[in-house]
Specification:
about 230 residues; alpha+beta; Arc Repressor Mutant, subunit A; Muramoyl-pentapeptide Carboxypeptidase, domain 2; 3-stranded antiparallel sheet; 7 strands; about 50% helix; elongated; disordered C terminus
Length: about 230
């Protein structure tokens, strides 16, 4: 396995090799002996790696395989293990946004964003609408963290600050996803917010402030040069 692939998986070369072979044989899994032969290490070494990967929830038994006198256990990737492999989500999302905009027009693209916001926020709204404003804001920060934003309260205590733009590569070419974030947070918070600082424009974080906060929006600014 290439070292770059192992690094992207966040695993050592050997452990990453094990996961890659399990991915390539996902339908039927591999036994310890089969893994040892493919990876080029001892069966005991493979057992140690499988034990560690099982403990991390990345690998699990998928059945028994007849290999001589007695059946041998076969192992495969769990759903979480499969998610460790990189995918071209950014490229797909950007192509989808551009196709909708070019073929159906800007109004259709904006309507799609609105539907996405409603669908994503719907499960949380009944809970959020029962909370006091300060509690609701704290709960929204938790939800944004569950979605991968690494969010905290902004310095003013009212807005929301995110240091991980989950659409970063897409946002650098299509700001529609930034408007999606604005609308999603507005829906969750129950008040209008706007993006006042944007990582896609070179800022250190994405900051969403209340519409009445008196801070200029990030939309329309030129991207900072590195």
């Amino acid at each position: 396995m290439l070292a770059r692939e192992a690094e992207m998986l966040g695993q050592s070369d050997t452990r990453g090799d094990v996961m890659l072979h399990l991915l390539r044989n996902r339908e039927r899994g591999l036994t310890l002996d089969e893994l040892a032969e493919r990876v080029g290490v001892s069966r005991n070494a493979i057992r140690q790696h499988i034990t560690a990967l099982e403990r991390d929830g990345l690998v699990g038994p998928v059945g028994l395989r007849r290999t001589g006198r007695r059946p041998s256990r076969a192992y495969g990737l769990t759903a979480e293990g499969g998610e460790r492999f990189p995918r071209q989500y950014d490229r797909l999302a950007l192509a989808l946004l551009e196709a909708i905009h070019e073929r159906l027009g800007e109004d259709a693209a904006e309507a799609v964003l609105e539907v996405m916001v409603e669908d994503l926020s719907r499960p949380w709204l009944p809970e959020l609408e029962r909370l006091a404003p300060d509690e609701r804001r704290a709960r929204v920060v938790e939800i944004m963290n569950d979605l991968g934003y690494h969010a905290t309260r902004a310095e003013d205590g009212q807005g929301v600050k995110a240091v991980n733009c989950v659409f970063h590569n897409v946002a650098r070419r299509n700001r529609a996803v930034c408007r999606f974030d604005e609308r999603l947070l507005s829906r969750l918070l129950g008040e209008q917010v706007r993006l006042t600082s944007c990582m896609a424009l070179g800022d250190g974080a994405c900051v969403f402030a209340g519409a009445l906060a008196g801070v200029a929006p990030a939309e329309g600014r030129a991207q900072r040069r590195p």
